[in-house]
Amino acid sequence: MTRVSMTVDGVSYDDDVEPRTLLVHHLRERLGKVGTVVGCDTSNCGACTVMLAGKSVKSCSVLAVQADGADVTTVEGLAGRDGELHPVQQAFHESHALQCGYCTPGMIMAAVDLLSENPDPSDGEVREGLEGNLCRCTGYQNIVRAVRDAAASMRGTVPTAQEPAAEASAASTASTASTASSPGEPASQGVTT
Amino acid sequence: MIPAAFDYTRPSGVDEAVGALRDGGEDAKVLAGGQSLIPMLRMRLASPTTVVDLGDVTEMRGVRDDGDALVIGAMTTHDEILHDPLVHEHAPLIAQATETVADRQVRHLGTFGGSLAHADPAGDLPSVASALDATFEVAGPSGRRSVPASEFFVDYLTTVLEPDDLLVSVRVPKLTGWGTHYEKFNRVAQAWALVGVAAAVRRSNGSVAEARVALTNMGPTPVRAYGVEDALTGTAATEDSLAAAAQRAADGAEPSSDPSASAEYRMHLATVLTRRALQAAGGA
């Protein structure tokens, strides 16, 4: 067993884990972060995408021990504490960018990552940027639309153009200090499957 | 699937890592970004007894300017390569090929050195390193040594690295005044190259003064297309002469057949992609 400390969606956790434990299994089975799903288990589909130290990764291809000391954000950590959806979540909702919804947590996290680097992507850039995520309902058309809508809405409020990152880290600080968040607390939002 | 159990160690320096590999024996494995190793662990295609995680070996990260060459730390991620101004200025071929590697998530963790040490025939960076005449800096129990790209790749997924060797960095000569291009053909849903071509061309007064061409996935290791290089050297850099030289791209290559492409198709692709790569790198 190896001692691992990480902050997930603003809450700090210390656990003893087997080195072979995949980050996605640690998130789901130990921390109760079941918003992050396992899709293909072969690194192809991207359904398990989370942010590790601010960058998107496939959590089925990371060992939990590699995330020691890191800040992890799952789809459960995107919404504001008052339940207000992240602009990408809101856009997926409004554009009906999901059919079965299984790929959605990963699609949303990958989109948040893409928009943090490219705030105004073209259709082609969205498709290229989400190449690591598969939707087997083939609902890509609405996903691309939702990402572009989210980009527009995030750009629309110029003073908070950096909102996603800033919001995530603010939420992170707030909940770490707060005793209200308990480990394994279920997601309060219904965007996950 | 859940990987088989292994001992895990996370050294903080190169010597400590080499020691950990030596102590771990033949079944110890290096974990760089993990984007090839962890899927193999998960599918139980690999079951090392010890995993040596290089995540804390900060001296192996980053790109530095060393006069006539860049020195790229083996643990530099693909994403860091893509955002590195030195790479864009002095080795744009690396940036161009890296952009085609896998997807954003994989590029965030996968490393430059890891891709080279993994030596997948369908990986893009081995042929790029070959075309750039890169030198591999290796640390082992008996000290450090330099290995030229022409000797580094030995066979399918096999390099000169011994089980207790570590690829520390890669020295890439700056190709000032050269044109370079990476041309790749792959299935849309998978970023693995069916065939890729890394080309570097130095022109002088409308002629090709020097050329280097290396092929991805045309054999178990990257293949230097010496026939093309010989045909190009000293000829006029015209569309016709570049195309004529490209016809020799597959000479002597023995690519494999798989469900995505037959060997014959790969031979054909090599000539077409080489022509495109040469025209982009050295055309008027």
From TrEMBL, chain A:
An example Gene Ontology molecular-function term: metal ion binding
Keyword check for Protein biosynthesis: no
Alphabetical list of InterPro entries matching this protein: 2Fe-2S-bd (IPR002888), 2Fe-2S-bd_dom_sf (IPR036884), 2Fe-2S_ferredoxin-like_sf (IPR036010), 2Fe-2S_ferredoxin-type (IPR001041), Beta-grasp_dom_sf (IPR012675), Diverse_Oxidoreductases (IPR051452)
Entry annotated with the keyword Metal-binding: yes
Keywords from the named record: 2Fe-2S, Iron, Iron-sulfur, Metal-binding, Oxidoreductase
Biased composition (Low complexity): 159-193
Region entry Disordered, spans: 155-193
Pfam families listed in its UniProt record: Fer2, Fer2_2
Domain 2Fe-2S ferredoxin-type: 2-78
Pathway field: Alkaloid degradation; nicotine degradation
PROSITE patterns found in the cross-reference section: 2FE2S_FER_2
Highest taxon, organism lineage: Bacteria
Record-linked SUPFAM superfamilies: 2Fe-2S ferredoxin-like, CO dehydrogenase ISP C-domain like
Record protein name field: Carbon-monoxide dehydrogenase small subunit
Organism: Haloactinopolyspora alba
Phylogenetic classification of the source organism: Bacteria, Bacillati, Actinomycetota, Actinomycetes, Jiangellales
TrEMBL record, chain B:
Keyword flag Flavoprotein: yes
Gene Ontology molecular function, alphabetical: FAD binding; oxidoreductase activity
SMART domains: CO_deh_flav_C
Domain FAD-binding PCMH-type: 1-177
InterPro entries, A to Z: CO_DH_flav_C, CO_DH_flav_C_dom_sf, Diverse_Substr_Oxidored, FAD-bd_PCMH, FAD-bd_PCMH-like_sf, FAD-bd_PCMH_sub1, FAD-bd_PCMH_sub2, Mopterin_DH_FAD-bd
Keyword annotations of the record: FAD, Flavoprotein, Oxidoreductase
PROSITE patterns, per the entry: FAD_PCMH
Name of the featured protein: Carbon-monoxide dehydrogenase medium subunit
Naturally occurring in which organism (per UniProt): Haloactinopolyspora alba
